[in-house]
Design brief:
Largest sheet: 5 strands, mixed
Structural class: alpha+beta
Mean pLDDT: 76
Strand content: 5-15%
Number of strands: 7
Number of helices: 14
Helix content: 55-70%
Distance between the termini: 14 Å
Order of helices and strands: HHHHHHHHEHEEHEEHHEEHH
Radius of gyration: 35 Å
Strand order of the largest sheet: 2-4-5-7-6
């Protein structure tokens, strides 16, 4: 048992690690797209600034050199966009290289346009801010060092810009105007793009948190399955003993001659048989019943047998079954699938034992999805219950261990590629919808399980 649990835990850790890497890769691609959008804005802004200063303000700039740098930046951004479309992973080192290209082009543009005397030199702060959000600590400090060296170098190494003759000190009007424009540009770009990048990172963190929660729930299911399997083994002997005793009582004259006692003994035998069926189902789901494959059947037969068995073993006032024109498709069934539906019906019965319960079966999404909907006349779900529907130990009944039935049902549906959703009906009562893809219930899958029974035992 311990070896099985350890193997399952190792598998879950590997699954979580792979899912975490996928989430990290997705965040990297999204951040690369944000960086590409920011770079296109930089290309457009630099082009507009160069042309405005050269032609409108009559401040002569080395257009050939500056436009060449701008063209190289545009080509690099186009190559980055093509890389993002390829679907390949984007590492943190790749993002660091992209930001370094931006710093290099900015340094070159400032070199040709006055160096430190150019008010747009504060755009280095924007590059550092972008790197702070996108990069890991080692890359961030490398970015700060490179940007600082570039800034300090431009205080001494640059091409002066010849300003036109003006009546006031030359730098006052141009420098103050450029400084204000640079400040506004930094502020707007920081707000817009930092918000987008932080949102991407938050989505990644939420995805990882969801994966961790799912791994914890699946580990919880594994432990419960091991405990249930052990309990089923232990219950086999006392159930067999009770069955023998009840059989003897049924043949004894004092009991056989009393119709009321005989009826009670028959009811006890029926419930005992149900207990033995449940125990057998637990062992079958755990892989103990070797050589038994999932049963091949048809959808109508499966649903009719499920409804008949549930009516016979539950003291329900009424269970209405509505199938409409549901086609009779081949499928397979096992204990977990039947137990999933039983758990939802049992929950509806507990919500209002004297009320009516309806089970509706239909096909959705062009016949690709089987929808089983359970409606009851109970008080419905509390808002906090709907928010945490399917979580373990979330129950409004106040019983120890409550909520495990729906928790297990949700995870059975998830393992089959489906889902379970709940809502409160406006006319009163609750509605729980189980949606399962028919492909996961096909006979072809049952045949595969029969050829590879070890995969079934490992579930």
């Amino acid at each position: 048992m311990n070896q099985t649990l350890e193997a399952q835990e190792q598998a879950e850790v590997a699954h979580l690690g792979a899912a975490g890497r996928a989430s990290e890769a997705l965040a990297g691609r999204r951040n690369l797209l944000q960086l590409i959008q920011l770079r296109w804005l930089a290309v457009a802004g630099q082009l507009a600034t160069i042309l405005t200063v050269h032609f409108l303000l009559a401040i002569r700039l080395p257009l050939a050199e500056m436009l060449t740098l701008l063209g190289a930046l545009a080509l690099f951004n186009l190559a980055s966009w093509l890389h993002s479309r390829s679907g390949r992973d984007v590492s943190n080192g790749a993002l660091f290289g992209g930001v370094l290209i931006d710093v290099a082009v900015l340094s070159g543009q400032l070199y040709y346009s006055g160096g430190i005397t150019n008010p747009f030199c504060f755009l280095f702060l924007l590059q550092i801010a972008v790197g702070t959000v996108l990069l890991r600590p080692a890359y961030i400090w490398a970015m700060v060092f490179i940007a600082s060296v570039s800034f300090m170098t431009l205080t001494h190494v640059y091409r002066p810009v010849a300003l036109p003759d003006v009546d006031v000190p030359a730098l006052s009007v141009h420098f103050v105007g450029g400084l204000l424009l640079c400040f506004l540009l930094n502020a707007v770009l920081l707000v817009v793009f930092m918000h987008r990048i932080v949102r991407n990172l938050r989505q990644r963190d939420a995805s990882l948190a969801k994966l961790r929660q799912r791994a914890a729930e699946e580990e919880h299911i594994v432990r419960m399955g091991l405990l249930a399997s052990g309990a089923a083994h232990e219950l086999g002997t006392p159930l067999a003993t009770l069955s023998v005793i009840l059989g003897d009582w049924a043949r004894m004259a004092p009991f056989a001659g009393d119709p009321e006692l005989r009826e009670e003994i028959e009811e006890m035998q029926l419930q005992l048989k149900r207990c033995k069926t449940i125990v057998s189902g637990i062992l079958l789901s755990a892989g103990e019943a070797r050589g038994e494959a999932p049963a091949q059947t048809h959808l109508h037969a499966f649903l009719e047998e499920l409804v008949t068995q549930w009516r016979r073993t539950r003291p329900a006032r009424a269970l209405h079954f509505e199938a409409g024109d549901l086609p009779d498709v081949p499928m397979y069934s096992d204990f977990a699938l039947r137990q999933m539906v039983d758990n939802v019906l049992d929950n509806a019965l507990e919500a209002r034992p004297d009320g009516e319960i309806t089970l509706r079966a239909a096909l959705e999404q062009d016949g690709e999805v089987l929808a089983l909907t359970v409606l009851d006349e109970g008080p419905g779900f509390a808002p906090e219950m709907l928010e945490r529907f399917g979580k373990p130990y979330q129950s409004s009944k106040g019983k120890p261990g409550g909520g495990l039935g729906l928790f297990l049902s949700v995870n059975v549906a998830r393992s089959l590629g489906g889902k379970i959703e709940a809502r409160n009906r406006w006319e009163g009562g609750a509605e729980v919808a189980m949606r399962l893809p028919l492909s996961s219930l096909s006979v072809r899958r049952a045949s595969a399980a029969q050829r590879h029974p070890e995969s079934k035992r490992g579930r």
